[in-house]
Specification:
CATH class of the largest domain: Alpha Beta
Radius of gyration: 35 Å
Shape: globular
Organism: Lautropia mirabilis ATCC 51599
Helix content: 40-55%
Protein name: DNA2/NAM7 helicase-like C-terminal domain-containing protein
Structural class: alpha/beta
CATH topology of the largest domain: Rossmann fold
InterPro entries: Coronavir_polyprotein_1ab, DNA2/NAM7-like_C, DNA2/NAM7_AAA_11, P-loop_NTPase, SF1_C_Upf1
GO molecular function, one term: ATP binding
Keywords: ATP-binding, Helicase, Hydrolase, Nucleotide-binding
Strand content: 5-15%
CATH architecture of the largest domain: 3-Layer(aba) Sandwich
Number of helices: 39
Largest sheet: 6 strands, parallel
Distance between the termini: 90 Å
Length: about 1150
Amino acid sequence: MNAQERIIRYWHAVELLQPSQLKKPEDSAGRSPKDEFVHDIQSSNEPFPWEPGSEASRQPLPLDEIDKRTGKPKVYTWFHTLYVQIFPTKTITDALDRAFGADQGYRDPAEREYSALYAAEFTHDGQLVPGSFTLSSEAWFLGRLTSGSDWSKDFNQDQTSIRQQAEARLTGSVNRQALDELTTFVIQQCGLQTVLSNPEKAVLRSCSRPVEVKGQQHDTISDTAVGVIPAKAAPTSRPSAHVVADTSKGGGTATGESITRPQPRQSDLPLNSFLLDDLIQVAEAVATGNTSKALSQYLDPNASITRHTIGSAELESAIVDHLLPHKHPTGCWPAEEHRGLVHAQQLAINFILEQLGEGAGILGINGPPGTGKTTLLRDLVAAIVTQRADALAQLPRASDAFQKNAKETGNASGKKQNAHPLQPDLFGYEIIVASSNNGAVENITRELPQRSKIDGSWLPEADYFGELGTLTSGAPSWALISAALGSKSRRSKFIDHYFFGNRTREELVAITGKLQYPHGLQGWLSGHANQYKSMSNASANRQQRWQQAVESYNEAKAAESSIRHSVDAFLTKIQHIQSQRNQLPVLLSTLQTLENSLPDPIAVLERDADSGLLAAQSRQKACAAEVLQHQTRKPGLWQNLATLWSASRAWQANQASLQATQLRAEQAVAQWQLLQHHQNQTATDVQNAIQDATRLQAQHIVSWLQTGHTTGDRQNELHEPWPLPHWRQARARVFLEALRLHQTFLALEATRIRANLDLANALIQGQSFSGYSRDAIRSAWASLFMVVPVLSSTFASFDRSFGSLGCEEIGWLLVDEAGQATPQAAVGALWRARRAVFVGDPLQLKPIMTVSDAALEHMRTHFGVDNHWLPNRHSAQTLADQATPWGRTTGPDDHQSWVGLPLVVHRRCDRPMFELANRIAYDGNMVYGTIAPRPDRETPAHLPTGWLHATGTSQGNWVAEEGRMLQALLAALRSDGVAPGDIAIVTPFRGVLKKIPALVRPYRGKGKTGKINCGTIHTMQGKEAPVVIMVLGGNTASPGARDWAVSEPNLLNVAATRAKRRFYVIGDRNDWQRRALFCDVMDLLPALDLHAEDIGGALHQKALASRDRARATGRYRSADEVLDGLRALRDEERTRRTAARKA
């Protein structure tokens, strides 16, 4: 077993103990007929959900829906998932603690409280869905551990064996007796007799969801990735879909072998980790040497690269070079107000494309909060799409995109299906956004298509399947540029939207404002295919249309190129200055070597050329004088005779030495003159170049010419490197023309593209297939990415979405919020990716590990893996950063780490929150770039950012006094006119979060804008709000919880940077100000006194004075006093207004 395989197998073992969260039972009151119904079956007498009298049978199903395609009423029935033998997760953690030892120190209690022995899916009438039985990996692990068996292997084999028994035992409509007998068998097979109770007394959890009945399959239905199919076609096993791909330049070619996935993929049962299957299969592939360069670099413990620190003098010239106009991609995003990328963003884009564009590998981008990660990624998307357009534009005819005479006919989900392999040159442009966080991938894929994310001047010209983009994104869109896959329901919805154009009546009216069903892409392609079939001169017409599209694209590129090259003469000057500056160290070194050979050597680096030259000339004169003086001491004839000519020989030796010294002194003068000329000429050239750079607004060039530095200067970082007039618009037009060229290609090759998309849809749905080459599978995906350039998935669903793609068959993997992802989460995606860019921040939230440190250490030792690979030490981001050559070391003194290319301009928060984060986490390296909103968009909160003191005795981590202070603050904000939807409440502790919803309920409004967002800090990354309130909590009887909250800057950093305009901290100021982090930022969080704050705005200055008194005296009002004061103020205000009305 090689080292990388051992690492992956170790991570697989860890994932056995990282199961999914079970869905919690819910009150059926207010349930929509389309919602899932989750219910616990508490006793053996309670009927199963498919049996008469069950709770599920009493729930309503959707009615009165019409199928748009058939015009007939839709029929729904139930589909059930049972989680059997529910047990507390503490059973597992206690057993692991006994076996491996317990962790020391505080750990916030896990959100996941219960697990199950196994889960299975059942049809509406209680028949087991073949292949759906899923054994709990952690229960299996516990059985192996307690019995002394090897827990590091054979889980899949044991699960398969027990699944076969389940399918043999559970026939027909399953009853309680059959299920109890199976449960007893599973307990015995897993060796859990001493751990789990009698099956007859165990609790079962039922999750019942409505599914549509397709056709006449009312009695034999089972759910798959899209809708309902006959039970005989249901999943029967979890297949191996990994394949070896030729990853030569050009993207890979056919292997000559047909590829088969014999069965559909298993459904998404939330019981075990969704990473398990992918990790074990990648480990098997790596064992045979079948791996990607990106994954190899990711798993390289020594990160075999030479690191260069951004900001160091040795890198500045290279940075200037990387930012030259010819390094910018031809196409860019048509951004709002035509705004370009700032210095660090553009450097990152250019570096990514140079390092990875023609090759393979992985890079990390450090993205602190509010520094424009999405802005960067959308420019990268535009660049990649434009590169594929370059490849298309090289084709004489649109049909030349396909391999000649290569049509394949295979079987997809029981149906014959054609596929048309593309030329390999069109592979490698696929873009997938992935994350461990559903919100992160959805934010990006929903944002890119929205009309508000491009400049309005491009509309309506910039329309690339905009109507379908609206359907897939859920908001008015300009393009079908991206879409979210992932879970089974998301994949199904994506196909319904983009391909068929399906929407419910309610969704259509809500999004488009009209009841008009758009044609899906299927209809669009069919229309174009039929159009050309009916033309008498179709071939000539197609060719003319293709040539026109290519010409339009090339014209846009030519216009962009003209602007790009308008600065060529200036760039020649810059390159000359770079050459001059590169020559300077050589000149200085040569001169210093010469100086060191002379008496009284001049320290070259300590002198300017003028003073050095004067000193050298003075020394040259002294040497010449000494030679002349020595001439006068030449021995005469008698002296030579007396010394047998030894005097003459000594004189001649001295003469030669003095002349040599004189020669070197003359050479030194010449060298000083050369240095003087070089510096004077360089100074003249630099001065002229500064004038040109100033005229061109190339601020970073001005800075480099003046100081030798480009990075670290605030003005440089805030500006676009080369804001040439109309260049950004010209580059954006290239991108839009690239999309138009794609659209023309799709229209001209509609028949073959439609066939490829039919196959792609089957692959997305996880259906079985056989008889296709690797090129056919890749071409189906490549065709889909031509239509929708960006698809996304969580890592948990990655294998289910993209499992049919093999090693290095994804062109670009873009990982967002990579700092939150465990290192093992990215393995399957990296194995499939040719190029990977990880964007994240190790100083924000870290990955959540539910496995104890002691267990991780024991398992690591078992696999013989270095402690570098402990998943509680690293995130996916930190491993990607370690493989990135350009970056810097950042973080507080005791948490320093290397990060890849850092983004630095922060544009989200008001100054206090920015300063707080910059101080505790980023060494002051972030640059403040937030633009204050217009007055009409500014928050009406009069209370400034600061600290509300509340102290009291806790119950667990909850301090009731803090809750009352929270209510007082919410009352004040409501009185100020702050909308509930503009407020977010965060806390480090789950125990505190449980108390908050009941407290804030009176302050909520109606609709989406009336909801106050509440969560732990861990659930809030990637979100933001104008006003953020942090309720600290923490056990007052034990310091462990509060020390944990400030043990690293991550939690406070994330909490503060969620707030755009106000950040309020509620807690015991006297306690927290003595703790780490807070002790450094109390000046940024001044003490506030709500009692003195003016609810209506007139007493603001009085509030500030009261705050100052409170800070001076250390006396803070209690929450009860504040509430009493607020009530008094409110009563006083009402009295005043009543009197005013009467007057």
